[in-house]
Amino acid sequence: MPTSSRARKTKRTYARTEASFPRFAEPIPNITVTIGRDALLACVVDNLKGYKVAWVRVDTQTILSIHHNVITQNPRISLTYNDHRSWYLHIREVEENDRGWYMCQVNTDPMRSRKGYLQVVVPPAIVESMTSNDMVVREGTNVTLNCKAKGFPEPYVMWRREDGDEMAIGGENVNVVDGEILHITKVSRLHMAAYLCVASNGVPPSISKRVQLRVQFPPMLSIPNQLEGAYVGQDVVLECHTEAYPASINYWTTERGDMIISGKLNLNIRVTNSPGENRSRLMKLIPQLDSYWG
């Protein structure tokens, strides 16, 4: 018999033999599941006949199931099948250690198999033990805020001010600082604010931690009008502004150094507060002040 005829006959025989064996109808798709959710891996086999299907964890070589029976002792793993063709491996409430390759095997000789990858993603979380808490520092010192986040994929971390204002960092005004560390050189009262460390990795939800930075600085005093004039008997207001942290204790004195007490001689002292600033007003000065000032 010519060589070409033998080759054609061998090819036809191989084709008939191959057609009699089971074959995978489709690849096992790789799937991505968020931690805590359920995962489903599907294996579709045509022409299975009397052969059996098994699921195997590739990295540990652990047999999970053989045909209709679950072998593993893992209570989160179960098996379903349909029409002796579709075989489904269920993993309930997936954990990070479930990440890896899974193989669907048919016990032919030689063995036939397909693999699919289970990716387990984890939303970001702040590592409190490695992240800064609220801070009080003196003006002019250097400050470092740290923020550590975990998750999979590895989270992207950034710092920004809660109020949306720009930050004066390294001689530049920026809205965002990338990375786990926010370093402020020679901190000033202008840096006093709430800062947000924001961590994200594409797996919702993103997470943030609020860190309040308070800057201690000595009082600064300003007087809007250093000279006030009034007619005898006319009401007048003397006003001064002070800025300090912690808040300063403000009071008024006469030229002799005597403290002016609110309510005495029809005088009223009113103090209003805003963040880092006090405003003190001495109100309703009347003729008796002549004797008060001396």
Automatic annotation (TrEMBL):
UniProt keyword terms in alphabetical order: Cell membrane, Disulfide bond, Glycoprotein, Immunoglobulin domain, Membrane, Repeat, Signal
SUPFAM superfamilies: Immunoglobulin
Subcellular locations according to the entry: Cell membrane
Coiled coil: none
Domain of life: Eukaryota
Signal peptide location: none
Domain Ig-like, chain residue ranges per copy: 22-107, 124-208
Cellular component per GO, a single term: plasma membrane
Gene3D superfamilies: Immunoglobulins
Chief location: membrane
Name of the protein this chain belongs to: AGAP008778-PA-like protein
Organism: Anopheles sinensis (Mosquito)
UniProt lineage: Eukaryota, Metazoa, Ecdysozoa, Arthropoda, Hexapoda
